[in-house]
Amino acid sequence: MTPNLITDYFDLEARGTDLPTELLAGLTTFLTMSYIIVVNPVILSEAIDVGPNTVELLAVVTILSSIAAMLVMGLYADLPFGLAPGMGLNAYFVVVTGLGVDWRTALAAVFIEGVLFLLLTVVGAREFVITLLPEPVKLSVSAGIGIFLAILGLEQMRIITATTSLNPSIALDPVAVLATVGILFTFALWARGIRGAIVIGITTTGVLAYVVSALGVQPLILDEGAGVIGAPVLAPGVSEITYGAAAYDITPLVGAFLEGFQNVEAFTFALVVFTFFFVDFFDTAGTLTGLGQAAGLTDESGNLPEMDKPLLADAVGTTVGGILGTSTVTTYIESSAGVSEGGRTGLTALVVAALFLCSLAVVPLLSAIPPFAPYVALVVVAVLMLQNITEIDWDDVVHAAPAGLTIMIMPLTGNISYGIAAGLLSYPIVATAAGRGDEVHPAHWALALACIAYFWVRFGTFA
């Protein structure tokens, strides 16, 4: 497509954007979510074993399933959001296999979840449920995700520990020091109004890591008691990395889900599908709402118009992922980095997809990026996502209680869906107690009961 055709197809002018902005936004989103290409295979390899190239094969299917979802997001939904196998959902995949469920059966559950999402999306049921989310929950989702992002980023950069305490060795830890410099530098660029501040910040941080490493500075190795998350490396080398043609032969994974339907224990399988379904449903709902707010694409009711289109993207990605051999695909909150750079159309998503495709040739080289550097973007973006807090009526307990719980529970539990569930549970109860039961839709009670059912199944049965 020529530049003019691209501009006309995505109607860039009407969205207040242009081709360079969309390209930059796509690059920014890719830089902030590309870690999944390495992280997802590493996590899933704890449950899936198809030989010596398992990690490489999982990297390939991670990329392919992400591309499939982003093609739908870009060409059909026309929204600037990236998708990939979700963090948390891949960890739950491992947990399920640890309970005795074969990994092929777990993939079958992912496939069934994707098919269910496809059917519900086509008939409009998913969009209907999401539009019924109480207003205070919608308005608080973005802020909750923002704080969640900040904690995730600060932990990975070793500035805070897993207990959210300040790293006691921060002044001696070169990773934390470089990350702090990167964050402040990025904010300085942003304050100066420099385009591409986030990309420049990530790149500069990575370059500094190599410089410091070349000077002989070694990362601080902390004991387990420090609770710091993240690989303690500054600038990994690539000299020992090899990548043969065998790493692209994904036939051991493709279609493996079909074997998973054999000897399935019905109740356990239904339980796994239900958990995948529930968590992904509300993760996606919260992420799309938060990203839509950040991009200024929501309507006066706080809803993302034609939400069935982006929902279809994650449904397609999840179905394809189950077929290829990876866990549930979902919309990434890291897309907010690209949105903050001005991405407003599906062209941003297509740029991310193109960069994922290019990464097929250099999957092992991605490990050469200092692992903490991309997380600089999360802290910067987190600040941007706090803006909607001012829209909440904090003087009204019917709004303040569910909004406050949604915002707090997300980062404290490290789970977006738990935060939304807290808001959904509290809203009808508080509203009714305040004598405003007429404001509570029957669907609000249904959503609250669904949350109770989920927690009972999730923690009561698997305890």
3D architecture notes:
α3 packs across α4 (54-77) and α6 runs antiparallel to α13 (308-324). The chain has helices spanning 3-10, 19-33, 36-44, 54-77, 89-98, 103-122, 125-131, 135-156, 174-191, 197-214, 256-259, 266-295, 308-324, 335-340, 346-358, 376-384, 397-413, 416-433, 442-461, and strands at 83-85, 329-331. Strands 1-2 form a two-stranded antiparallel sheet. The chain has one domain (3-381, 392-461). It contains 19 helices and 2 strands. Residues 224-231 have low confidence and may be disordered. It is 62% helix and 1% strand. The N and C termini lie far apart (54 Å).
Layout of strands and helices, then pairs:
Layout: H1 3-10, H2 19-33, H3 36-44, H4 54-77, E1 83-85, H5 89-98, H6 103-122, H7 125-131, H8 135-156, H9 174-191, H10 197-214, H11 256-259, H12 266-295, H13 308-324, E2 329-331, H14 335-340, H15 346-358, H16 376-384, H17 397-413, H18 416-433, H19 442-461
Antiparallel strand pairs: 1-2
In a few lines, what is going on in this structure?
This protein has 463 residues and is mostly helical. Helices cover 62% and strands 1% of the residues. It has one domain.
